[in-house]
Amino acid sequence: MLNDYQAKPLATRALRETELLPRLPLSSFQVRVSRMFRILAVLCALATCWAQDCTVANIKVMQNFDRQKYTGTWYAVAKKDPLGLFLLDNIVATFTLKEPGIMEASAKGRVIILNNWELCAKMHATFEDTADPAKFKMKYWGAAAHLQTGYDDHWVIDTDYENYAIHYSCRQVDTDGTCLDSYSFIFSRHPAGLRMEDQKIVLQKKQDLCLFGKYRRVAHNGYCDSTA
């Protein structure tokens, strides 16, 4: 149970989390509605944090996942970082299907290595099926493959295929079943960000993943386009 001291930081993180989500341009009416929504999001976060199951095995993924609809280009608009080196921003992933229905992806994003060497890393990944259609094992290839562990989970938590998608990966499970090292992407079909109607869904899924307040915004300023 949270005391007042613990609840205040959570409320602060909740407000910050809503501000981190990139959004498409809003009308004045939509701005007012969005502000009301952010307040409600704080209240919901406080209500759900009292009893939450953070066991990795109990995380719910997308039901009846359709990989064909999932293909195409996705722009990362927010991400929760894992331990170690990782892509910073300008992250774009393109998913394709190869025969016989095997999913592949190419991704690029800005990264800094050796403390001060900035570059646009480009990677390629193949996905191995599991018993659950929304859970894959992902193998990275290419010169920048060292930016990943090489054999990560790729779980599709939720998507409407046309606007948003939520990805999750746990690299190390603790003895109590929770995750010690995870990362997650919030994807949008639109580089400008999420639609207002998608934000409530995304915020709830962040809470379900026990990652609320741990995401940071992903900028898109054309860096990888200019260095291509």
UniProtKB/TrEMBL annotation:
What positions does the entry give for substrate binding? Q148
According to the lineage, what is the superkingdom? Answer: Eukaryota
Query: What are the entry keywords?
Result: Acetylation, Disulfide bond, Retinol-binding, Secreted, Transport
Q: One GO cellular component term, please give it.
A: extracellular space
InterPro entries under this entry? Calycin (IPR012674), Lipocalin_ApoD (IPR022271), Lipocalin_CS (IPR022272), Lipocln_cytosolic_FA-bd_dom (IPR000566), Retinol-bd/Purpurin (IPR002449)
Q: Which GO terms describe its molecular function?
A: retinol binding; retinol transmembrane transporter activity
Its annotated compartments are:
Secreted
Record's keyword annotation contains Acetylation: yes
From the record, give the cysteines joined by S-S bonds.
C54-C210, C120-C224, C170-C179
Say which family it is in: Belongs to the calycin superfamily. Lipocalin family.
What is the official name of this protein in its record?
A: Plasma retinol-binding protein II
Task: Name its species.
Answer: Conger conger
